[in-house]
Amino acid sequence: MSAVAESEAKILLTTQPGWAFATIEELRGLGVPGRFPRYHRDSSLLVPDLGKTEPDELGTPAIVCGIVLDAGSTGRDDAVSELTKGLKPKALKEKTLNLLRGSTGAGHRRFSISTEAYGRTTMHRKQLASAIEAAVKAAFPRWRRAPEAGARFLCKADPEYAVLALQLHTNLGGDHGERPGSLREHLAAGLLTIAGASRDSAVFDPFMGTGTILKVASEAFRAGPTIGLEVSRDTYEEAERRLKGTGSNIFNKRFEDFDMRSLPADANLVSNVPFGRRFPRASSEVLTELVNGSPFRGKRSTLLMSREQAMEVSKETGLRSRNVLVLGQPASIVYG
Ligand SMILES: C[S@@+](CC[C@H](N)C(=O)[O-])C[C@H]1O[C@@H](n2cnc3c(N)ncnc32)[C@H](O)[C@@H]1O
Predict the structure, then answer these.
(1) Is 214 in the pocket of ligand 1 (CB under 6 A)?
(2) Is the preceding peptide bond at 225 cis, omega within 30 degrees of 0?
(3) 8 A C-beta contact, residue 300 and residue 307
(4) Whose C-alpha lies nearest to ligand 1, atom 1?
(5) What is the Å distance from ligand 1's center to 274 Cα?
């Protein structure tokens, strides 16, 4: 018997490598029960049962997909053979149309397929894509395959677990502050989730750049007051433009010249500190002083930084650290 499972509302979330733990925090915060991670080599996959949560309410994942078909390995066959056995045009059509009803923006009669296969699977990536293409064409004879267009099928497979899903929502696009070095909004949401930001909680970003963290804090988390500092004049002006109407208090200042005593006593420190590649690095001593000083006192801090600096800062502050990738670059989140 095939191990293909066909549950109604199963959702697949792909996250940036390393960031799954932020998404898991977010799902827990939303009351989604269960254990749901499945990992593929260089991306993280979560398969939660969202219940009544709408996929576009999620702030931290990269891509949200509805599961068309998934399969596990059996004693005899690996997950990829089980998945391809389940590629029946009639069922594929029904499931796809059901999912597309709930999604926005998928163009008509065109589809794209991206496949990732890890480990020693019975089919390699391209063979798997051809099998899926044949099934989609049999299900929808008028549809044409086109790169990155229309209905987007995503297949991820390893010998143990294989999944074919249809993209419903992505937060990889959008407003990135239009400047190199700006943080993507979903990663800012990840930092704020780890920081436990919530309605009316104060957020302080001493290296705000174009203000992504504060923007997401006030718009998606309804946090406030939000306070930010930025040393460069034109970056500050860009932040001012982006944060208009959010009520953020921002200053064109070096953080060394800012009086931390003016911050609310329960403020969260959430920041993407200068890494030293594009911007001059803030020293680990100065960061340690900031975290250990008033009002944070070694707590309520979530900082994205280089891995090397994370080791130094977590040693001096007692904060935890987790390795992540940011646009393919190694980095760490120091938090606690
Ligand atoms: C990694 S970027 C932050 C990017 C930001 N998260 C965004 O989305 O635009 C670090 C920022 O810190 C600023 N910066 C560097 N040293 C600073 C200092 N001593 N005080 C305040 N800002 C500083 C840099 O000009 C840069 O814009």
Answers:
(1) no
(2) yes
(3) no
(4) 274
(5) 6
pTM of the predicted model as reported, rounded to 2 decimal places: 0.89
Q: Which domains does the chain carry?
A: 11-170 (3.30.2130.30), 185-335 (3.40.50.150)
- 335 CB within 6 A, ligand 1: no
The Cα angle at residue 53 between residues 176 and 44, in degrees rounded to 5? 55
Check if 183 has its Cβ closer than 6 Å to any atom of ligand 1: yes
- CA-205 nearest atom, ligand 1: 6
Q: Do 228 and 211 form a contact (C-beta atoms < 8 A)?
A: yes
Per-residue pLDDT of the chain (336 residues; tens, 9 = 90+): 333 333 456 889 999 889 999 999 999 998 888 888 888 777 788 888 887 788 778 899 889 999 999 999 998 999 999 999 999 999 999 999 988 875 655 556 899 999 999 999 999 999 999 999 999 999 999 999 998 778 999 999 999 999 999 998 888 776 555 566 778 899 999 999 999 999 999 999 999 999 999 999 999 999 999 999 999 999 999 999 999 999 999 999 999 999 999 999 999 999 999 976 677 788 999 999 999 999 999 999 999 999 999 999 999 999 999 999 998 889 999 999
Does the C-beta of 191 come closer than 6 Å to ligand 1?
no
Closest ligand 1 atom, residue 207 Cα: 12
Centroid of ligand 1 to alpha carbon of 257 (angstroms): 14
